[in-house]
Amino acid sequence: MSQPIATNKKAYRDYFFSETWECGIALTGGEVKSIRAGQVNFKDSFATMNGGEVFLYNLHINPYEFSASFMDEKADRIRKLLLHKKEIKKISGLVSQKKMALIPTKIYFNNRGLVKVELAAGRGKKLYDKRETIKKRELKRSLQRVVKDRVG
User: Fold this and answer.
1) What is the pLDDT of residue 44?
2) How far apart (Å, rounded) are the C-alpha atoms in residues 86 and 46?
3) pTM (predicted TM-score)
4) How many other CB atoms sit within 10 Å of the CB of residue 62?
């Protein structure tokens, strides 16, 4: 995996993740150029199973500014995620039995130059879980400060 173009930070705050999958995404040429320019936003995006396929909702990709206006796609259109049938069966089992949500966490270009989306199965955090995560993060930061002061 190469450097991510966009990361869904809100998802890491709101969900516990158990499994992740790397999947392709069906895009048009202008969308790929827009992603390459970093014009992508994960706000409130999620994936669902529909008819044996996985679709991504609310992934906002700004229209490429230099493309022809008649070829522009909607910025928030539904996009198909490309997975193997075995992976789709496993995902459908997790979603139906364990009541997990499918959340996109990262979007990036792989080594071959193809756009990939990291999809994760997650369970929502409760308010007390979020507070606990914040406490752990603050404790880790304070420990790093102490170590840095002693070394430096």
Assistant:
1) 87
2) 21
3) 0.79
4) 15
Closest to 103 (Cα-Cα) out of 6, 14, 26: 14
Percent of the chain past pLDDT 90, that is, above it, reads: 44
Identify the CATH number of the domain in which residue 19 sits.
2.40.280.10
Tokens, residue 51: 């008819």
Contact 83, 22 (CB under 8 A): no
Q: What DSSP string runs through 39-90?
A: -EE-TT-EEEEETTEEEEES-EEPPPTTS-GGGPPPTT--EEEE--HHHHHH
Domain that holds residue 33: 4-125
Instruction: Convert the pLDDT of each residue in 66-113 to its tens digit.
Output: 776 656 677 788 999 999 999 999 998 888 888 888 999 999 999 998
Instruction: Find the largest Cα–Cα distance for the chain.
Output: 61
What pLDDT is attached to residue 71? 60
- Total count of domains within the chain: 1
